[in-house]
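Quick one: SLH domain-containing protein from Paenibacillus favisporus, structure tokens please.
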Amino acid sequence: MVQKRSNHSLPSKKVVSAVLVGMMALSSGTAVFADTPATTGASVTAASVGQFSDVKSGFWAEKHIYKLAAQGIILGDKGLFRPNDYVTQQEAVTMAIRFAGLQNKLSTDTAVALPENVVVNNYFKPYVALAFQQSLLNKTSESAATGQKGTWGERKASREWITEVLVRALGKESQASAAASKATTFADNGKISASKRGFVNVALELGLTNGVDGNRFDPQGSVTRAQLATFFSRAEAYNNIKYDNSAEGIITGLSDNKLDLYVDGSVKSYALDASTGYFTKDSETKIAFTELKPYTKVMVIGSGSKAGYVEVTDPTVQLESTEGTFQKLSPGNILWIETNNTFQQFTYDAGTTFLDQNGAKIDPSAIAVGSKVTVSRETFSSAKKTVIVQVKSGIVNKTGTGTLQSIDTASKSLVIKNDAGNLESYTWDANSFFSYQNEILSPSELKAGSTINYTIRNNMIQSIELKQGVERTIRGSLYEVGANGSTITYKRDGGALEVKLLASKPEIVISGISAPLLSDLIADSTAGDQVQITLNPDEQVTKIEVLNRQMEQKRGASVVSYEPKTKLLTLMDANKKPFVVTLDDKTKLVYNTANPTLSGIESLLTTGRKVNVSYLTNRALSLEVIYQYDGKVTAIDTAAKKMTVVTPGGETLVLPYSNPAVQAYGKSNASLSDVKIGSDVALVLNATQDAISSILLKSTVQFEVVDMNYTSSRITVKKDGVTSQFYLDKAALTGDNGQAVELADIRAGQILNVTFNGTNAAAAQVVKLTTGQITAVDSSAASPSITVKDYAGTTETFKLGTGSKIVNDAGSALSLGNLAAGNRVEVRKDESGNAVVKVLNVTTQTYWKYDSYAKEIYVKRQNVNDANLYKLSPGAYIHQGDTILTVQSLKENDTIVLYLNNGTIVEIQKQ
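--- reply ---
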């Protein structure tokens, strides 16, 4: 049995140096040592915790390495920890002696006798000898362990051997003896040595170790430095030793580089820096410094006044509060409040924080008589100092800076996050004033996220001044689009010319044009487009919407003649009425080239050529040579061989055809019989523009993206189990809310609605997927629907019309009766706009472990054929009730409910 003690002394400097050298030679599992540190030729020092360059943030054993390195139980070499190096038996024993706090019993005599067959390096002899003396090692079994390669000390420590040493170091040998006859639940239970099985059972019961893949313990497997650090760190929960450089107390002061800890009646200060690691008792994931809270209980491990490891052991704030009505401040820093008709006094000092009802700091003199206040005092010392005085209700008059969190124009209220990070709620009235750079704003122009200066008078907003721009809209006429497409110049009504930079991919909206470009805008000094321009907070143009165009438009006009010298183009409209326009270098030209020029289009302007033209008085603003018409088929006269279509602009066209080619996606032998009344088509004209040459049937198909070749713009998709490929190089791409996106934004696993002109993709839009919990089911025959709350907390109702589908995860059809509140579903809309509801699989399991590298959850099998491995989605919602959890906070044997989408976990609900 290991004797426990409350304090220990460190070994001599010579012994520590020797151990350091031995502990560092881990990469090969064996090492040759000289008689003294001076002859090794190596400069070895203990690396400061947090400075191990080979232990990356998020590493699975990061917490345990931080902790034991801060305690001096494990060491590093020149900034490296080598977490994946295997540990030898003599090295493991050294760590066990330190863990058990037995250094003060070490002997420096390297001539000490060891049991037969136990051969170790001279530097480790004192540790191994002490381990035998303290019954951490069994002389009989260790002497009998022969037939293995290498000396006893340089052999790689096996998992079952380490387990025995660790359990003995905890003084639990008697429990191991009692559990020796009990079989473990591991599939390789028979491979665990009979003499070690009891120790394995105790270690499993204490949660010190788990199995490996395939529900195996792997008893003869080697142990890495990271694994051994984890074993010893977890075992400290059962170790009552107090290490000299560890202290547990209450945080009384906290700044970016300093922590004050109240311990046993006095305050000790620790320096903090980038190498300090912050953790919680119940999680193995590092937390941010900002998650530390004053007046909570923590354990600090450090060297001198430098904190290497900080662990929150109890997040409960150690304060007691008294509520009452503020009466007055008296000399001597005394605050008086009335509670239950009794006056109480509280002494405060410079360390006391005074807050208003929104959590913002105020001066004590700002508290108005009659205000309801809460006085909080610490409970961990006899002084019971007043640490916080907060106004709960009362008159507030203040100025401050912060960030707008939300604005509700209906209730005339808003929420501000002040510079201290606290939320404040206020209302406004007709006398409130809002501005930006001396320009008066309306409340509707205030945007969440804006930084502000604000003034409060009598609890009401007096003024808000924006310190940065807000999104806003202005109207005017378009004067010029910059040659490089980076600026626009416009003129406000009755104002001067203004120039604005364009944001990346500004949205263009022009009625009658399905996917307008910047080049579709008409800019002119006297008759440019009347537009509404949206500016972002950086005063960049994000949207241009054409409200009105002053020019006249003629579609389907025929060329009568063109004079190159005068640039006069004579045309005849559809009503046989002639008119003349003049072309110039500002005329927008569209014909079959990516780089149109006036000289290039002139050869096409032959008698009878059909064009679309827009003009102001007699100056042509745009000229387009017609190659095809888009529209909806309204009539097909097979006898006269004529087809009637209505264009998006409402124009009716009757076009003859002879033997047109027909293209339709997914049909290799499409014919004229596939063109129906109501079909959306693109009619490609012949060379003389007087008849239909080919008919491109327009269709929208929904696919799942399988793969993307970004170099060739080729996409591989899947629909109904069939895989196909096509190109997106000429398609307009949009996201799930209609915003323009790049090809690189399209990824495998997304759902796309692809619109085809014939067999060519003309547009593709990402389909919105809503995943979450059904909160209500309306099964009424008139308007059945479900309401779904997604994992971000947003609620949306989906109508389930006759075209809607309800399926399970395997694709089998379900009915509305299969849906109930509490079901987890994924909802999308198909290419026709009908809702598709997929009910997710659910399974209740017992948690085992998490592989952070593979992002996989292991659960314990109930039956031998059960699945015990599930992939975890990057955005999985992990929670217990309304509390959001991290995957690392899950403990072995926790009962968890898994919700699966295509076999991948999208939600974990801890029971």
